[in-house]
């Protein structure tokens, strides 16, 4: 389930908002220029399905988005749990790549075709932890401070959209704050609180 948890950037244990309500999530993020939309999920993705086939399933939406937003490069980032020796080490290395706060020179546009991951968006003086799941299309404005957690057991397939070949390159802020915030595993382990009457 898509989830948003908002925390002050200087008090990671203080939860200002925690919601799984899709309109509330989209509305809260839209107030900061971040778009969260949904595409219908076109079937499950298994580790055996190749990336070109996954892209082909979303061809119409991908082409429309590229035309509208001037995206020229599309790729598929993915990781699935495996019993292969060395997988845990490979997963930990992949995870650490995105765990430090960074910015990109272009919009970060990602569609989850499978699994989940959490984008932590550092907007003004708050952190918006946004857990995306299959069907979520997130668009984060260029220059937004953020980091990404794929969890200790990464399982996701994400279509990535770039304006330039090197659009994925991050400019790291060297701010260690990311380490103080709840991980993806911790965020999804907490059951949603009932709404106040
Ligand atoms: C879900 S795609 C991998 C994460 C990524 O591309 C990125 O830039 C995270 O900040
Ligand atoms: Fe990023
Ligand atoms: Ni998987």
From TrEMBL:
Catalytic reactions on record: 1,2-dihydroxy-5-(methylsulfanyl)pent-1-en-3-one + O2 = 3-(methylsulfanyl)propanoate + CO + formate + 2 H(+); 1,2-dihydroxy-5-(methylsulfanyl)pent-1-en-3-one + O2 = 4-methylsulfanyl-2-oxobutanoate + formate + 2 H(+)
Binding note for cofactor: Binds 1 nickel ion per monomer. Binds 1 Fe(2+) cation per monomer.
Cofactor: Ni(2+); Fe(2+)
Coiled-coil portions: none
GO MF terms, alphabetically ordered: acireductone dioxygenase (Ni2+-requiring) activity; acireductone dioxygenase [iron(II)-requiring] activity; iron ion binding; nickel cation binding
Pfam families, per database record: ARD (PF03079)
Keyword Zinc attributed: no
Highest taxon of source: Bacteria
Residue numbers marked as site, Important to generate the dianion: 110
Enzyme Commission (EC) number: 1.13.11.54, 1.13.11.53
Cross-referenced PANTHER family: ACIREDUCTONE DIOXYGENASE
Family: Belongs to the acireductone dioxygenase (ARD) family.
Subunit-structure text: Monomer.
Protein name, per record: Acireductone dioxygenase
Organism of origin: Streptomyces inhibens
Lineage: Bacteria, Bacillati, Actinomycetota, Actinomycetes, Kitasatosporales
Gene name of the record: mtnD
